[in-house]
Design a protein that fits this description.
Number of domains: 1
CATH class: Alpha Beta
Number of helices: 8
Radius of gyration: 16 Å
CATH topology: TIM Barrel
CATH superfamily: Aldolase class I
Helix content: 25-40%
Shape: globular
Length: 222
């Protein structure tokens, strides 16, 4: 059975009871929590900063991913590390000196991930891949939750997996955008090891626990 993890995206949670929602997902077995940080510049939306990451950290001991959809991420990486993030994800498109940014994250003792927008080819990170702990493939355009999955993302994952395996690297592949029971199994079979799910977890009519079980079951089903 292929091993994979579910990263519950906080952007889709009910912020009037954020702590309770996080704890529900934690108890239901979500291995990670995904924090979409948007600045209104790199993407058109604005979400939250380190204070919300710190609040989530107080609610769970699970892995927290800070996905920085911001310009000049280097300026703010220490703040998100201090807030309690375990993995810092930066966009290839936002980093002038990506190698230096990854080094900064590693110096602070955290795992470093690179994010690729739908139109960004995987070859743009070929030279830096040995320095990366995780690659996040965006399967929607960044900036808003609840978008439709871009089908070509599956082929992109498969190509990235081939590149990683050929070079015998330990880099994990993550996917974010439009993920749910209908496509989770397909992308995991293509090479994804971390599924970011927001609406499919926090806005499912059956509730958080049942939604996570359904998502996991959709991957594990023969």
């Amino acid at each position: 059975m292929t091993k994979f993890e579910i990263s519950a995206s906080i952007l889709a949670a009910d912020f009037t009871r954020l702590g309770a929602h996080v704890q529900e997902a934690d108890a239901a077995g979500a291995e990670r929590f995904h924090m979409d940080v948007m600045d209104g510049r790199f993407v058109p939306n604005i979400t939250f900063g380190p204070l919300v990451v710190e609040a989530v950290r107080r609610c769970t001991r699970r892995t927290i991913e800070a996905h920085l959809m911001i310009v000049e991420p280097d300026r703010y990486i220490p703040d998100f590390v201090k807030a309690g993030a375990d993995i810092i994800l930066v966009h290839q498109e936002a980093c002038s000196h990506l190698h230096g940014t990854l080094q900064q994250i590693h110096r602070l003792g955290k795992k470093a991930g690179v994010v690729l927008n739908p139109a960004t080819p995987i070859l743009t990170i070929a030279d830096i891949l040995p320095e990366v702990d995780q690659v996040l493939v965006m399967s929607v355009n960044p900036g808003f939750g609840g978008q439709t999955f871009i089908e070509s993302s599956t082929d992109k994952v498969a190509s990235l997996r081939e590149m990683i395996e050929q070079r015998k690297l330990a880099c994990a592949i993550e996917i974010d955008g439009g993920i749910g029971p209908a496509n989770a199994g397909t992308v995991v079979r293509a090479g994804v090891r971390v599924l970011v799910a927001g609406a499919a977890v926090f806005r499912a009519p059956e509730g958080v626990a049942a939604a996570i079980a359904r998502l996991r079951g959709s991957v594990e089903a023969p």
